[in-house]
């Protein structure tokens, strides 16, 4: 029995056969070649996420308790700030690219609304920046205010 590569025919020298490599160009990657920027794109990177939510006023004590529960369930959260009608969550996300980090951030509030008892607020803002940009902003003094002590705090 002859084994045949997918996409080729099993003919033996008939009209359907072709010389090896004919009609196909093969491209190789020499050892030591690097992706632009020096690292493969598949490696995850760290992204600083700021998620802002807002909605109808809710009792401040319930908002605080819900954000504390979210932080307990997901210890990656750095800082949450809140008032009776809005909140802001800051954290680091590890993701392949900005699109993946943003997609996770946009699902965070809705997916954990019931389990953490979060208010039925909508996402009104999202910022996702890479670690280098975050550090550059902080060093220049114009970035997101350095996170208040880690935890849940009123505005």
Note down, in words, how this protein is organized.
The chain is of the alpha+beta class and 155 residues long. The protein has helices spanning 60-73, 98-111, 113-116, 131-140; strands at residues 45-54, 77-82, 86-95, 122-130, 151-154. The relative contact order is 0.20. The model is unreliable at 1-18 and 24-35 (pLDDT under 50).
What fraction strand?
25-35%
Structural class, judged by helices and strands?
alpha+beta
Order of helices and strands: EHEEHHEHE
Sequence stretches where pLDDT stays below 50 over 5 or more residues: 1-18, 24-35
What's this model, at a glance?
By secondary structure, this protein is an alpha+beta fold. It has helices at 60-73, 98-111, 113-116, 131-140, and strands at residues 45-54, 77-82, 86-95, 122-130, 151-154.
Descriptors for this entry?
5 strands, 155 residues, alpha+beta, globular
What is the fold's blueprint, element by element?
Blueprint (H helix, E strand, L loop, with lengths): L44 E10 L5 H14 L3 E6 L3 E10 L2 H14 L1 H4 L5 E9 H10 L10 E4 L1
């Amino acid at each position: 029995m002859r084994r045949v590569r997918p996409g080729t025919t099993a003919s033996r020298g008939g009209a359907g056969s072709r010389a090896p490599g004919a009609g196909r160009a093969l491209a190789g990657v020499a050892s030591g070649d690097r992706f632009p920027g020096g690292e493969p794109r598949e490696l995850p990177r760290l992204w600083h996420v700021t998620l802002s939510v807002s909605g109808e006023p809710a009792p401040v004590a319930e908002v605080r308790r819900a954000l504390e529960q979210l932080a307990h369930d997901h210890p990656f959260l750095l800082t949450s700030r809140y008032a009776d009608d809005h909140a802001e969550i800051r954290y680091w996300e590890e993701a392949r690219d900005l699109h993946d980090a943003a997609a996770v951030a946009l699902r965070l509030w809705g997916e954990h609304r019931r389990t953490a008892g979060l208010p039925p607020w909508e996402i009104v803002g999202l910022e996702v920046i890479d670690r280098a940009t975050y550090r550059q902003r902080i060093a220049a003094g114009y970035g997101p205010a350095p996170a208040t002590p880690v935890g849940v705090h009123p505005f």
